Known about the structure:
This protein is an all-alpha fold. The protein has one domain: Glycerol uptake facilitator protein. The chain is built from nine helices and no strands. Helix 2 (about 60-70) crosses helix 5 (about 125-150). The longest helix is centred in the N-terminal third of the chain and has 53 residues, at about 1-55. It is globular, with a radius of gyration of 16 Å.
Amino acid sequence: MSKIMFAEFIGTFILVFFGVGSAVLMGDEIGMHGIAAAFGLSIIAAAYGIGAISGAHLNPAVSLGFLASGQMTGAQFARHAAAQVVGAIVGALVIYIIASGRAGYDIATNGLGQNGYGAGYLGEYGLGAALTFEFVATFVFVTVILGATGPGSVPGFAGLAIGFTLMGIHLVGINVTGVSVNPARSIGPAIFVGGKALADLWVFIVAPLAGGVLAGVLHAAGLTRAD
């Protein structure tokens, strides 16, 4: 079990290092398309790197979907989620350390790739839009994951399907919330940024978890399962 937890820790670290790192360190150069690609590529890398060890969930909403679908126990979910959150925090810390080495960087002004909504945040979408996007996008994401790794799936291609789905989600929603669909990914940067990032954090915990649960329940009912 310690090996599985370490794999989830490393995998979530990779997700934050690639994804959040691209936004913080290279956002001006690569734009939203580049950031979306970085998040997708991080999933592909982690899926093929550590997927055989832990399933490469890298996301409490994904693990909750597996729990709701009957493929995990409550204890397994708790261990996965704990490792994911720690991996995201360490990933955000490393990005913060690197960003702090740039002249003029100020976390209060430049941020740390945190998620948010409302006045002053990217497209300034409201709370209702943020909740809707995060719920629907996470539902779609977890549904794809459960299908791509479940009965009838094509062996060896799950990582690509999942990575490209996350990339597509980012292409749709970066301007809305910065895209969470993952409570761990949101918790990591928010801890260091504080203020509004922490105040908004509940949205990026509640909505993704609800979307993951719905995806798992429908999968368990057979509505999105090949068999």
